[in-house]
Structure to design on (609 residues):
């Protein structure tokens, strides 16, 4: 079943490609299942079942194949990041609900979307499974040929029809080059894996691909904790103090790297789509402007109509300029959010390792275990969704341009609606502020009304200043006349004990009526701050935008809390070091006391300080 976007292209575009990408997605499940079956055959099951006794040839084969360890993967992190990046185009199409393999009633669309997402996941499963498998030669060969097949199919689809009806020239190149680059990287990675595994197999090199119970950077972190800190700390640069300081004893797990890579590529795709929509809307506005010019010529220069047309042209010019400027501002904001979330992850993990939970709401200090397990599964998808699809709103498209309608289909599949991503919310907020600044300050100066603008600005600042000053005066009067003296001379402030009670009651009475009006302004300011901060931080899943006491309603923040607690319990360097020492003692003394531990690598670290 073709989506609305694919159907429109195949029926209305003169350039037809012999490659149907959705059909390729369906048929890719066949080699994907074959690769999973082969890798499963090499995987050994820890526990044997009754079927092993009946079929002796199984001998523990056909174990469970995992795509990647979402909890403790610190090797092949960038390879997994590029594997996630290769799925970016399909992820964007899933977000827009454009890929629905079955036609069902609206009430069952959630189930169909789950089926579509599962199909996409199975199609790209070999990328991750071949990177994760311990059988390097088999995984690298299967992964190389599967990736090469996708690479050739994508190149063929682009070469046969590089242009499109939506974006025009080189449309597919613009959209598919990030995924192509990721596929090309994976080809090189699988080739390198094959060479290294072959050298190890031929006894020409020593394998260093074992899964270590304790990673090197985790052991270094614990050694740094028990080592005496230096008396003189090294001088930090401005970048280290204000932006980011690299820590050799900390590594981000593969889940965080892959999530960030996929979020950046999906963000790029959406910004490109938004830019082309802007171009088409600008063309429509130019046509509207020309029609107003024609109407102006036919009206014999009516002053009212001339003024309206001039104001409309000015509004069009202002909105176009501000929209372009805020496109870069919103893009930089969202890109900075992706990296800032990584920095916050490291900061929060280090605080949890140190036993500090004060940065979390009180009710989040002990999240439920089931919530943490579910959070580790939700986090990657939800983080990308919060950056791209922070909230949704729909409106019908009634524009005349055919290209704009096609872009809408591209974004939303069969539905004639727009889904507003978190990026676009930030963009719209910045755009509104930009237009407000233009009409408040820039345009009055251009029209020779700078003096009137300065006069009005001065009156506004003076009004706000007087109101703020009166609030400060109330505090100063309360401190000077209505509080008892300090108990000790060294006290920082006076005790909360009333003095001059009769004067205090008169003070409260006469300021009661004025504070009603002052409170109205404070209420409006509070509402404005809530709206601005709420929309500005909509993509920040690491920070709740709910007020204190209502954090439980923020499902994104709860997912973040559950995720960091899951990582805290399973990747805590101190806990892992303790377990590693127990395993080392078991090996040295051949004790059976800790028989349940299983050190797969047997790797030892030098714990000397």
């Amino acid at each position: 079943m073709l989506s609305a976007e694919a159907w429109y292209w195949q029926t209305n575009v003169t350039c037809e490609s012999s490659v149907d990408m959705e059909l390729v997605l369906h048929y890719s499940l066949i080699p994907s299942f074959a690769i999973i079956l082969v890798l499963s055959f090499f995987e050994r099951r820890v526990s044997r079942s009754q079927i092993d006794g009946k079929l002796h040839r199984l001998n523990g084969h056909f174990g469970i194949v995992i795509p990647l360890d979402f909890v403790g993967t610190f090797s092949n992190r960038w390879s997994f990041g590029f594997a996630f990046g290769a799925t970016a185009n399909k992820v964007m199409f899933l977000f827009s609900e454009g890929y629905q393999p079955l036609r069902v009633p609206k009430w069952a669309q959630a189930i169909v979307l789950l089926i579509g997402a599962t199909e996409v996941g199975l199609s790209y499963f070999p990328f991750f499974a071949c990177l994760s498998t311990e059988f390097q030669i088999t995984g690298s060969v299967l992964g190389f040929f599967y990736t090469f097949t996708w690479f050739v199919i994508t190149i063929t689809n682009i070469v046969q029809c590089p242009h499109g009806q939506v974006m025009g020239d080189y449309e597919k190149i613009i959209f598919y080059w990030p995924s192509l680059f990721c596929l090309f990287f994976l080809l090189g990675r699988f080739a390198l894996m094959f060479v290294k595994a072959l050298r190890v197999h031929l006894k020409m090199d020593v394998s260093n691909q074992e899964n270590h119970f304790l990673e090197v950077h985790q052991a270094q972190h614990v050694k740094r904790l028990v080592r005496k800190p230096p008396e003189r700390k090294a001088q930090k640069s401005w970048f280290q103090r204000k932006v980011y300081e690299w820590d050799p004893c900390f590594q981000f797990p593969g889940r965080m790297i892959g999530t960030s890579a996929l979020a950046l590529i999906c963000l790029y795709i959406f910004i490109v789509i938004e830019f082309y929509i802007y171009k088409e809307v600008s063309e429509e506005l130019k046509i509207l402007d020309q029609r107003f010019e024609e109407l102006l010529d036919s009206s014999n220069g009516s002053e009212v109509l001339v003024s309206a047309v001039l104001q409309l042209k000015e509004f069009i010019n202002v909105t176009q300029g501000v929209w372009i400027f805020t496109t870069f501002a919103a893009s930089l904001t969202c890109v900075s959010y992706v990296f800032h979330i990584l920095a916050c992850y490291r900061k929060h993990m280090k605080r949890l390792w140190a036993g500090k939970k004060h940065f979390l709401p009180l009710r989040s200090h002990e999240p439920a275990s089931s919530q943490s397990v579910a959070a580790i599964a939700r986090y990657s998808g939800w983080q990308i969704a919060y950056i791209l699809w922070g909230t949704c709103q729909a409106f019908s498209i009634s524009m005349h341009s055919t290209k704009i309608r096609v872009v809408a289909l591209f974004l939303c599949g069969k539905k004639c609606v727009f889904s507003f991503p978190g990026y676009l919310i930030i963009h719209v907020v910045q755009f509104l502020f930009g237009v407000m600044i233009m009409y408040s300050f820039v345009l009055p100066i251009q029209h020779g009304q700078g003096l009137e603008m300065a006069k009005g600005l001065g009156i506004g600042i003076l009004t706000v200043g007087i109101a703020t000053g009166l609030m400060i005066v109330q505090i100063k009067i309360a401190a000077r006349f209505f509080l008892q003296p300090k108990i000790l001379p060294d006290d920082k402030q006076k005790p909360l004990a009333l003095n001059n009670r009769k004067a205090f009651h008169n003070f409260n009475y006469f300021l009661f009526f004025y504070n009603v009006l002052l409170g109205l302004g404070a209420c409006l300011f509070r509402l404005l701050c809530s709206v601005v901060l709420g929309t500005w931080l909509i993509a920040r899943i690491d920070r709740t935008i709910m007020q204190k006491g209502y954090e439980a309603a923020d499902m994104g923040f709860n997912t973040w809390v559950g995720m960091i607690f899951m990582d805290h319990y399973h990747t805590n360097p101190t806990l892992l070091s303790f377990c590693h020492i127990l395993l080392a003692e078991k090996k040295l003394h051949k004790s059976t006391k800790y028989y349940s531990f299983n050190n797969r690598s047997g790797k030892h670290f030098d714990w000397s300080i």
